[in-house]
Amino acid sequence: MNKTVKDLQNHFRQLRLSETAEELPQLLREAEKESWTYLEFLEAITSFELGKREEKSIGRRIKWARFPYIKTLQEFQVEEQTALTSRQLTQLQEFSWLEQQYNLILLGPPGVGKTFLAIGLGLEAIHKGFQVYFVTMGELIQLLKTQEFAHKSQVQMKRLQTSDLVIIDDLMYMAMDQREANLFFQLINYLYERSSIILTSNKSPEQWTELMGDQGIMTAILDRLLHRVEVIHMNSDSYRMKNRQHIF
């Protein structure tokens, strides 16, 4: 019996099902204990393998998303702010807006949870099967300016452009020159009606033109960003200050 199990385990490994091979003895013991039918046993094996593959896929997509930290929506204390109700947060988690290429703009001063909420939605989207990419505005400008000659930037830009959801953090926190503005417009134009975008910013869209320096380009960018969008104003007290830790 043991030899037969080992032979089967080797067969599973040859089929590149190494985790199922390791789990096989336990599955056999459970099958004997519960008197599974052949069909039930096959169901248990295939369900185990599919579950492991999905687990690996989620882990890989989380790694590719490049989140600066991991925060889930379960940790987001919706009762501590007035920008979203529990019902609205639940509606966002259904991701019909993502399937329809709607954008989200999260506005508010530093510390109110804009990035926290964006990351939480990004993680939830990954678990629902979507591809997500997170980038700060500073990192994005650097990628756009170096993608023509830097292989690493080319790889990251390809992942960004093929994502279902792109999160751009700290939009317009710094001024852009003419070349940077053109590159940013080209990206927004490419993503338009291909992907959804979550933008976080401490400045309203009316103020973005001041930092862009080119009203024509900014108007074209806003035209695409605001075509289908939900703007969420997060103007409550700083989450970090309310939940700060003390030395004494």
UniProtKB/TrEMBL annotation:
Domain AAA+ ATPase: 100-233
Keywords annotated in UniProt: ATP-binding, Nucleotide-binding
Protein name, UniProt field: DNA replication protein DnaC
Organism of provenance: Sporosarcina psychrophila (Bacillus psychrophilus)
Coiled coil: none
Signal peptide: none
Spans through the membrane: none
Family per record: Belongs to the IS21/IS1162 putative ATP-binding protein family.
